[in-house]
Amino acid sequence: MLMNPPPFTYYEFFAGGGMARSGLGEGWRCLFANDFDAHKAESYRANWGGDHLTVGDVWDIGPEQLPGRADLAWASSPCQDVSLAGRRAGLSGARSSAFWGFWRLVESLERQGRGPRLIVLENVVGLLNSRGGADFTALCETVARQGWRFGAVEVDAALFTPQSRPRMFLVLTRDTPPAHLTQARPAAPFHGRRVVEAHARLPQAARTSWLWWRLAAPPSRNEDLAALLEPDGAVAWHTKAETDRLVALLGPVHRAKLAAATAAGERRVGAVFRRIRSEHGQACQRAEVRFDGLAGCLRTPRGGSSRQFLMVVDGPRVRTRALSPREGARLMGLPDNYRLPQRATAAFHLIGDGVAAPVVRHLAEQLLEPMLAPRAVLAAE
Fold first, then answer.
1. CATH value at residue 106
2. Does 138 share its domain with 198?
3. pLDDT digits (tens, 9 = 90+) for 182-207
4. What pTM value is reported for the model?
5. Nearest C-alpha neighbor of 43 from the set 17, 67, 62
6. CA torsion through residues 122, 125, 126, 131, sign
């Protein structure tokens, strides 16, 4: 029996602050990392060092800069053009087209005989139906033509950490996966309606390369939003006037939620977003609160609707404040020793664009490592 298997190796594209690296953990060795954003790269270096990091446009990277042959290529390509919250220009958009720069490198490595065994493409779930599903179909047709087997799973970070953050992971393999890692048909919670419908839209030629990945559901999460917050005395609270203005933005449904929380007579913690809603044909700003123990999906700080607030109810007393960067990092499953940018805006830009580390760890344990383990054993013999 192999006691000390060599670490698995990977390239991390669109690496941001290295949250995929955090999730993969100690059993994985990074050979190369890349991101376009110099500020995110500073955070990457602060947490992981810069030995394997190249900062710049993925289109400017050549295969000669990628050392060795990695077991895995991880790509969390920019999501702005396919996000449900964005303009959804599709993979041809100015930022999301960076994916094709990454894929060009994969093709170059393949021609050199050192393509990765596995690829994980992570993105917002909006990619599944972007442009009526045309983007996802084009992506699947591309990888199928080049001989990859693949399948998508939708994973909500809420299974692991108290943040509602659904993401799509398309897992590609060159090898025939062990039988216990696939199943004959989709199953909850990782094959939701969007995944099933995206699969149904694929032409038959691409569908024959599809795999329904089997992932075990994780243990029930035992922490809610309140458990991750800083002590009340360690944070800055809104003034009463600021809180009153936020409460005044609540519509009838959300006022009822606040009234129910107040009537409970105990401490309740809610998450609040401000949004633009259409009412009677007019655009108006509204605040929406949830008291279900989850934060809303963390976003990058672009515009007022991206800012997330906390509403803490203690009987008749209602207080509000901004979510802190450290609390946001905890919602991403990052440890408290993870170094964040000093400015809150930069910190939320980093974590709002990231991938929840516990989700990566679950995928690694459930799929990636079991598929790679046989090769690790052979390499050590």
1. 3.40.50.150
2. yes
3. 999 999 999 999 999 999 999 999 99
4. 0.92
5. 17
6. positive
